[in-house]
UniProtKB/TrEMBL annotation:
One of its GO terms (molecular function) is phosphorelay sensor kinase activity. It comes from Streptomyces fumanus. It is a multi-pass membrane protein. It is an enzyme of class 2 (transferase). It is found in: Cell membrane. CDD domains: HATPase_DpiB-CitA-like. This is histidine kinase. The lineage of its organism: Bacteria, Bacillati, Actinomycetota, Actinomycetes, Kitasatosporales. Keywords: ATP-binding, Cell membrane, Kinase, Membrane, Nucleotide-binding, Phosphoprotein, Transferase, Transmembrane, Transmembrane helix, Two-component regulatory system.
Length: 535
């Protein structure tokens, strides 16, 4: 790793030097061309040169040659050439070339344009500046071409290279030192493991994370998800796109996101995500992040509720058996006393009471699952000394979209109401189910102690309960499931104070009922003859 980092630093230093030298050479070239152009401009501005060009011959000892050589020696230029409109030299560093045509095209300068270039001429490669030579009237009578040897520019560039390489060498030394320090730190952090060992550990970690049947969620120091194993994705109902997002962004606001983010602390924290009941634990890591583990307790909670229901049913059957034995003893006594009419009347009253209760519920609630639930809860309530009453205002058509979900909602609310009302004076629980269009409204009232205003939102939070949990499961799930089921259908679940004391839970389900179908009998005319024949 150290050698690799040094090689990278050296490559960067060489590349930076090259990138610096390339524009430096262009800059020096531009400076040389501008210098040549400035010398040419200064020479062309001398009016005597233009007059001598028109009045004297082109000779090695003429005034134009003498002035051009004076300018060349004073400025250090390689050459100063003055030419007429025919392109014939009137001055040159080699007097023998005076009177000959120039080697490069003077067209642009003779046309009145200034030229900067680097080109090859009779004196080699040079930086050139060409300007038109004008007389007193402004007419172009010739041109002035000044050249600066390109070797002098290259020499300046070569002279600058050692200093550049000295800076590059210093940067390389600093980079090598930094690479050595980094390699030492990486070596300590990796505990002197080779790359192959690190790769093997990573492969083992991936296999373990995706193979265990427990959800694992890793978060970085900023609270964003950086790892999700397969089980966590299944339990939370999210995919790999959640990586890089916060729990609230991936799951939405709620207790599950608060537990993962560390806003709720503790061990074996109970939370509900969708239809799943989860147990979460969160452990901080040394880098400021955290790892949360999730266990699925949905099936265990369902079994616990089934166990509670079975125990309630057993208690109800025991109560019914006890009540049935008393009734049979009463009936036997009437028969032994030969009070046959009273015995018949007594049997009719007993059977009629049960039948009236069942008929009362089924007339108002035609759905069999919901009606059976309430009939069974009536028996359980009687055993616990609570009067369970279905309100006279209850009317619910047999058009339920999700009857099982409504059964869960009603069952949980009735169970909580029975727990609250049991043992109170004139214990009573009232259930009211009404429909308006496709919206179903459920209200469950009890005569218990009620819910204080400051706890009316907390009662719907996972794990919140004022009752002692049984040994086989945790409490604080029922009301949370009620709200989740209601919100999943676009509805709401709230609690307030009941009239006369106690609590009143209200659940509104906007899409609980299917659209009502049109009845053909109300729209199609009936033939009287057909109706009479049918009768």
């Amino acid at each position: 790793m150290l050698l690799m980092q040094v090689a990278i630093a050296a490559g960067v230093a060489v590349l930076a030097t090259g990138l610096f030298l390339a524009p430096l050479g262009d800059q020096l070239d531009d400076q040389a061309m501008r210098r040549a152009l400035a010398i040419a401009q200064a020479t062309a501005q001398q009016p005597q040169i233009a007059r001598d060009l028109r009045t004297t011959p082109a000779t090695a000892h003429g005034p134009v040659q003498r002035e051009a050589e004076r300018v060349r020696k004073a400025t250090g230029a390689e050459y100063v050439v003055v030419l007429d409109r025919r392109g014939v030299r009137w001055s040159h560093t080699d007097p023998r070339r005076i009177g000959e045509p120039v080697s490069t095209d003077p067209g642009e300068a003779l046309a009145g344009h200034e030229v900067m270039e680097i080109d090859d001429g009779t004196l080699g490669r040079s930086a050139r500046g060409k300007v038109p030579l004008r007389d007193a009237d402004g007419a172009v009578v010739g041109a002035v071409s000044v050249g600066i040897a390109y070797d002098s520019v290259r020499a300046r560039l070569i002279h600058a290279i050692p200093g550049l390489f000295a800076y590059a060498g210093g940067a390389l030394a600093v980079g090598a030192l930094a690479a050595w320090l980094i390699s030492r730190r990486v070596q300590r952090q990796t505990r002197d493991l080779a790359f192959s060992d690190i790769a093997a550990l990573l492969a083992e970690r991936e296999a373990m994370l995706h193979g265990i049947r427990e959800g694992v969620v890793a978060l970085d120091r900023s609270g964003r998800i950086r790892l999700l194993n397969d089980e966590a994705q299944r339990l939370l109902g999210i995919g790999g796109e959640a990586v890089g997002r916060s729990p609230a962004e991936a799951l939405g606001a709620g207790r599950t996101a608060d537990v993962l983010a560390g806003r709720v602390t503790g061990t074996d924290l109970l939370t509900v995500c969708g239809q799943r009941v989860l147990i979460a634990n969160r452990m901080p890591t040394d880098d400021g992040g955290a790892v949360a583990t999730l266990r699925d307790r949905t099936e265990l909670e369902q079994l616990g509720r089934e166990l509670d229901s079975t125990r309630g049913l057993i208690d109800a059957l025991r109560a019914q058996d006890h009540e049935h034995a008393n009734r049979m003893h009463t009936l036997l006594g009437l028969l032994e006393l030969e009070m046959y009419d009273d015995a018949v009347e007594y049997v009719g009253e007993v059977v009629g009471d049960h039948r009236a209760t069942a008929e009362q519920i089924t007339e108002r609630i035609p759905d069999p699952l919901l009606a059976a639930l309430l009939v069974g809860k009536t028996t359980v309530a009687a055993e616990r000394g609570v009067a369970l009453w279905v309100s006279d205002r209850t009317r619910l058509p047999d058009r339920l979209v999700d009857p099982q979900g409504l059964v869960t909602i009603v069952g949980n609310l009735v169970d909580n109401a029975l727990d609250a009302a049991a043992g109170t004076t004139h214990a009573r629980v009232e259930v009211e189910l009404r429909a308006e269009g496709r919206t179903a409204t459920l209200k469950v009232r009890d005569t218990g102690p009620g819910v204080p205003p400051e706890h009316r939102e907390a009662v719907f939070t996972e794990g919140w309960s004022t009752k002692e949990a049984p040994a086989h499961r945790r409490r604080g799930i029922g009301l949370s499931l009620v709200r989740r089921l209601a919100e999943r259908q676009g509805g709401s679940a709230t609690v307030g104070a009941a009239y006369g004391g106690g609590a009143e839970f209200t659940v509104v389900l906007p899409e609980a009922l299917a659209p009502a179908e049109l009845e053909p009998a109300l729209t199609a005319p009936v033939d009287p003859a057909v109706e009479k024949e049918a009768r």
